[in-house]
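Bit of a strange request maybe. I'm writing a small parser for structure token strings and I need a real example to test against, not something I typed by hand. Could someone generate the tokens for this chain?
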Amino acid sequence: MDEPQERKCVVCTNYYTTPKILPCGHLMCQQCVISWMYSKPRAGCPLCRCPIVEQSDGSSSDTVDALPTDFVMEALVESARVLSKDHLCCVCDTKKAENICIQCQDKMCSSCAQLHKKMSATRSHDVESVSTVTPERLAASRPALCADHGDKQAEYFCREHRLAVCRACRSHEHKVCLKVSFLDDETESVQKSLNDLTKILVEAEQKLEQAIGQLTSRLQEVDVSEQEDMAQVDKTCDRLHKLVEDFRNKLKDKTRTSHLQIKNSLRDVKTALSNRLGNVTSHKHIVTRVTSVSPRPALIHMTEALADRVNSLDLSADLQGEVWVKLSSSVECCQEVVGRIEQELLTFEQQKTKTKMDPQPPVLVFHDNCGTNIRLTNGNSTAEKIKSRAIYHGVVVSRDAMVADVLYEVRVDTVSGENSELLLGVTKISPEHLLVIKFSTDWKDSVIISPSLVAHQAKLVSTPIGKGLQRLQVGSRVGVLVDSSNDLHLYIDGQDQGVAAKSVALPCFAVFDLWSTVTKVTALPVSRRT
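Reply from user aminoacidic:
Good idea to test on real output. This should exercise your parser:
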């Protein structure tokens, strides 16, 4: 049942006069719509900001006239006015009317109401207290009258002229009309259409409410994820203390911005769905009011307009695929940053230690002459095999000769298979002559650590410590070190695997062969081992 406030226009705050149904489903007085559009040409509905008209090719008056009229609301407003006024009895005109006849819709005093109930023509009428009759019931009880003879009961409905007519009009004015049916049959058909519309709107309303609920839950998940990521950021920054205070603020801003973008996107979708829900709910209220009022010619006029309107509404609750994109967590970023900072701190400490012994510590940077199968980038510290080449190997050599007790190490960046293999060791071949090497079988005066027995003309070292090279993954670190006794050591992930070869002749260069599935490596800062 409508509250009195719902029978008032939001613009003029008075009871509706010729209420027009806007595309969003809200109502405004006809003249208020015209005035609103004239004063604010681009303004939308005062309640939901949706466009008042889809497009207008004529004057505002013509555009507003084309909007469907809510005849039910019009009848409710008129009934509310009848009930709210303190009329005198329509029979005696002397006493205050306290009762009303539902059928005649006349207000009477108690004495005249008793007389009304005794008359043969009206004794079957329902006479009730004005205080107990609602506008809905009064509007629903209004008789269907002939469109041409307002005092006669309408029994037929002409579809060609869209009029409810009496028996006499049916026999004369609408005699040649082909689409004339009984009013009861037409209203029964209309009632079925209204029930179908109600079902469609209820289902659409439920779907939209469910979608909005999912978005609300998703927003809560985003908030939780943001809190977790912020906590991880705090934990990471606490480990770095004052050294990375500026970084803490930047990372928070980045995290907050990424979540804000997602939340804004979700809120946009939620707002759009809420607007659609408002449209559906508004039209559902209209259909519900129509359903609760007994059939009248005005309702028949509305049914077609309401059916067209509901069919034109966007009743889907499909969510945009991009809304469900997984959040990019800051955890991995934090871990990577911590690793980089720790490595930088370690390098810094090593360089400080080395500076006391050697003002110019050695650096592992691959030499420019690494052959046609290798591409060097990142200041010649990253080596990548050129995939278009048919050559199976990719060989890189350190730029400078090795220094005793210094670890020369690379990180595996990319692999193309499950079992990764990397050959490494030392070679007497100088970088200037590396271009003449086409295959590792051409290596001479070299010591190569292999995970398996591979035919080399070089001194091949295949020992149990080399088996770990078959289990390399992205991020694995491998390196070689020649100690002060000229023994060659293999290192995997910073751990000494043992002596691979004894009495290596110096000077020599660290060599790495991107064998098999290892396709890209990056040189790491050297570190001194004691």
